[in-house]
Write a structure and sequence with these properties.
Length: 266
């Protein structure tokens, strides 16, 4: 039976592993290679065992490359000393397939995937891109990430930069905004974080349910914002201060940074 080997097992790898376990994946089918003692301690708690590099030599195993961009090309060279034509899924932001392929033979199959941290709860969103000669790996990658959420296939590799800035980084933007709610709700709830958490959970689930019902976003705003009311005052202030434009600038900056990383490691 094929195994999944995470080469690099930091935060994003651990979120995927937890989601796979939640989905019923057999723990013995998940292995990792990582030198960080803190990561090793966490993975031991999940019941996931480390592997030596000889495990990489089995061509039917899926290797998930999940290191920092600055370490990606060196990691590929290390992997190539064990296997020249791996089935490799790269989670590395910005590094193109053609750059990763330089370390391997022409028979190597490489696909890029960009998951979100909500994969932990099987609520992940993963973008997948692969070249035409990697159809089988693309299919297996989609099957894998569909176990921890939803996945979309991109037609062009350049679209990965946009997805990374918009969705890959997206949860952090919302967490950043929620810090404002958290601060004000703590004052309303006498500093009780548990009560604040319950309110925020209901708050977000309510928004989620509205979207599930297919409500138009402008209609959803109009249902809340009565003429000359408190909501209208708040919305008008956000408009006057160009909050949407500033938010969009932040997303575009993340997209640009993903492209810059790609250009740095050609």
């Amino acid at each position: 039976m094929s195994q999944i080997i995470f080469y690099g097992c930091g935060n994003i790898s651990q979120t995927i592993i937890k989601g796979l376990i939640l989905d019923g994946c057999t723990k013995t089918n998940i292995l990792y290679i990582d030198r960080n003692p803190l990561n090793k301690k966490k993975l031991s708690r999940y019941g996931i065992k480390s592997a030596d590099e000889s495990k990489l030599s089995t061509t039917k195993n899926l290797i998930i490359l999940a290191v920092k961009p600055k370490d990606a090309l060196a990691a590929c060279k290390e992997i190539s000393t064990v296997i020249s034509a791996p089935q490799l899924i790269s989670l590395v932001a910005g590094i193109k397939i053609k750059s990763l392929k330089k370390s391997f033979s022409s028979k190597a199959s490489i696909v890029r995937a960009m998951p979100t941290t909500a994969s932990t709860y099987k609520k992940g969103i993963t973008a997948i891109y692969g070249e035409q000669n990697s159809e089988k790996l693309i299919l297996n990658t989609k099957k894998l990430f569909s176990r921890v959420g939803i996945s979309i296939l991109l037609k062009e590799e350049e679209e990965m930069n946009n997805f990374t800035g918009l969705i890959g980084s997206g949860p952090a933007y919302f967490f950043y905004l929620l810090k404002i709610y958290n601060e004000h709700l703590l004052n309303l709830c006498d500093g009780k974080q548990r009560d604040v958490d319950a309110i925020i959970i209901n708050f977000l689930e309510g928004i989620s349910s509205s979207i599930s019902d297919g409500i138009d976003l402008n209609e959803a705003i109009d249902l809340i914002a009565s003429k000359k009311g408190t909501t209208e005052a708040g919305i008008n202030s956000l408009k006057d201060n160009n909050v949407l434009q500033l938010f969009e600038k932040g997303i575009i900056s993340a997209m640009k940074r993903s492209k810059e990383i790609s250009d740095e490691y050609k």
